[in-house]
């Protein structure tokens, strides 16, 4: 292992620490990915989480300036292949290896920036926000799934990746109602009634079903990891339906550890 390889290894390990700190579900699902993909998925979500935390309160002073600086450093690293920030370095290495660039990162940072000035969304602004905050992340992951195996399948599989990314974000809106509305002052789904809540769940479930249809078209070695993530979100949809709007507003809806383990076990044992 030469010095550049050792540095990249440390960078990916730093991203893995970030993910383990913030999402046990994702950390477990990522471990189900083959080694050729695991470091790329870890690197993508490590950077996504850092940006998320900047706008969600981890940055005590001038989060916009820090978010702007992060975007500048990401673009510089994607251009020249190095960053002194380990999480940025890992992300840039993945972008360069898998073949995505600012066509995906700029919409992402635009959506993160929108969170700094929360305002009720229109259907158009919400669609743009979902695209930047989630759909493009799905496309980054798709690049990682296909690199070195079937990169020419990207355009054919992209619509399914978009639907799966959108589904995950729509479920997150509903499970995080209390934190988004009360602590962060955000209204992704303004004037939410029980009927609208049910409709939003139906919309997320439809996206999940559409995205799931594309999983079988992915390289075989990544299907179980992607299916595990989809299965966890389907379980969240089920629990949100059971809780209803009042339950969702009373606290974050979670999948308890034993249920999570059961869902992941079923994903592992499911036939390919």
Q: Can you tell me about this structure?
A:
The chain has 272 residues and is mainly α. It has two domains: 1-148, Farnesyl Diphosphate Synthase; 159-271, Farnesyl Diphosphate Synthase, CATH 1.10.600. The protein is built from twelve helices and no strands. The chain has helices at residues 3-22, 24-31, 35-58, 63-80, 86-98, 102-114, 123-146, 154-175, 177-183, 194-213, 220-250, 257-269. Helix 3 runs antiparallel to helix 4 (63-80) and helix 5 (86-98) crosses helix 7. The radius of gyration is 18 Å and the shape is globular.
Short description:
Pathway: Carotenoid biosynthesis; phytoene biosynthesis. The protein has two domains: 1-148, Farnesyl Diphosphate Synthase, CATH 1.10.600.10; 159-271, Farnesyl Diphosphate Synthase.
